[in-house]
Amino acid sequence: MQTTRLTVILLSAVFTVVAHAQPDQRSDLSSTPRSATFRVAVEDSDFEMNPLYAFVATEAQIFTGLYEGLVGYNPLTLSPIPGVARRWEVLEDGTLYRFYLRPDARYDNGDRVRAEHFRDTWIALLSLGDDAAYGSLFDDVVGARDFRRGRISDPDEVGVRAVDDLTLEVTLRRRTPHFAELLAHHSFGPLHPDVRNIRDLSDPDIHVGNGPFRLAAFDASGIVMDRNEHYWASESVSMDRIVYERFADARNATDLFFNGEIDWNTGLIAFDGDFDSSDLVVNPLFATTFYYIRAEQEPWNDERVRRALALVLPWDEIRSQDVYFTPTSRLVPEIPGYPAPEMITERDLDEAMDLLADAGYPDGSGLPDPLIRIPGGDSERVAGIMRESWNTAFGLDTQIETVRYPEYFARASDPEVTVGILSWIGDFTDPVTFLKLWISESTLNEAGLVSERYDILIEEASALEGAPRFARMAEAESLLLSSGTILPVSHAAAFNLINLESFEGWFPNPLDIHPVRFLRRTGDEPAPGVVLR
């Protein structure tokens, strides 16, 4: 989210059709009065309430209620709008941002949000190194990368300075036009000094946030957030309560939506039975699901070997239109003016054998058996195709290991893994949100790619604008795809159930992020500052 606004984000599933599962735990939440309550069905998972450690898309959505950064998201366009910062200036040819904070910005305990809280929270996140998934989002800030990598230890060398309580200055390494959009991501928000060093913030008695809602309950059944009366724009918040209910069963979540007990179903949709599609909202996401071949260990660190593995796969079968809503062979979703990169779209056994012979593995002789680690679902089908293809072509005995969410995220980058899978929602609609994942020191570089050429291309692109910038980025993407490092299979679509005649302030968008402060029931008198259709 924005991680990029959106958050850069990973999905356990965008579209889930689940068989009947264990009963969902609703007893604590179902008795909540409905008058000014908005109920959301989310997939049952372990949610992280500490934004320094959060990683997945559902957490980013929840954080639109609990936290607010310098800027927020326009709910319709996702462009940055004033948040804690009432205004900002861009100076020094785009390398200096000066933010002026609202004097009435408060945490939910009534304490003032100060500029130093942003600075100290950002330093705390960078201090986590690789334990903070989104640490590399700060790399455009002077000194941020060197600080998180341990090359410098003085936080004063990082280009973030609290001039006074209400003024924050951020100095960038170079002009970065998308920086304001990036700031809407939850990683750039402030944490209250009393909780900044507390790892687990799921206890409502401990949690302190500065968003339009405060954490009221957190348990196995879900999350309850009540309106934060100290929020600077509290009078513009229509809902008194937001309830996120966890569901393991899509059938149950779907039935409760059509029974009027759930207001928004976030993709846990069972299409069987008597299904009314009038409340189904489907829109393309700026997102891609892809496999990756880890490039750290021999022999997979040789791009000839990775490309050879990719060239013997039956891509028409893997990317079947019978399976995927939008199959693709590219990482970055199509953007006007962005050139098509060089991609692997079909099998070429002869080239694969030539590459392996050149790399010292004639006919695959001497290659170790790969390990594919997946979270289940359709990845089991694709992993089976990979295993069969590599066995037939090279005689490899590929191992497949299934690790369910959320543990999969924690183990996806283990060095023994040869192939993994990720779904990524861009932080904003620009190619860089996909391409910066793979720079050598990125905290999100699950492939472990270290390529000086790739890093140079991304650095050069960052200094350009317009068509030359897109051309350089497409060249970098070509390096990822043609080397067999990244193996895209589909672009995602968002499937939501919500009655848009009953609610306003919720808009379909390419990041599927919906700031809850703007939600209101149709017919409610609009409060000042509420965005309407």
Topology:
Blueprint: E1 9-10, E2 37-43, H1 57-66, E3 71-73, E4 80-82, E5 85-91, E6 96-101, H2 115-127, H3 144-148, E7 160-164, E8 167-171, H4 179-182, E9 213-219, E10 222-227, E11 241-247, H5 250-258, E12 264-265, E13 280-293, H6 303-311, H7 315-318, E14 326-327, H8 349-359, E15 371-374, H9 379-394, E16 399-402, H10 407-411, E17 419-425, H11 432-435, H12 452-462, H13 466-482, E18 486-498, E19 503-504, E20 520-521
Parallel strand pairs: 2-11, 2-12, 15-16
Antiparallel strand pairs: 1-17, 3-4, 5-6, 6-8, 7-8, 9-10, 10-11, 12-18, 13-17, 13-18, 14-18, 19-20
Helix pairs in contact: 6-8, 12-13
Quick structural overview:
By secondary structure, this protein is of the alpha+beta class. It is built from 13 helices and 20 strands. β7 (160-164) and β8 (167-171) form a beta hairpin.
Could you explain the architecture of this structure?
- 22% of the residues lie in helices and 20% in strands.
- By secondary structure, it is of the alpha+beta class.
- Strands 1, 2, 9, 10, 11, 12, 13, 14, 17 and 18 form a 10-stranded mixed β-sheet that branches. A 4-stranded antiparallel β-sheet has the order 5-6-8-7, covered by helices on one side. A two-stranded antiparallel ribbon has the order 3-4.
- α6 runs antiparallel to α8.
- The two termini are 22 Å apart.
For this entry, give a set of tags:
single chain; alpha+beta; Dipeptide-binding Protein, domain 3; four-stranded antiparallel beta sheet; globular; disordered N terminus
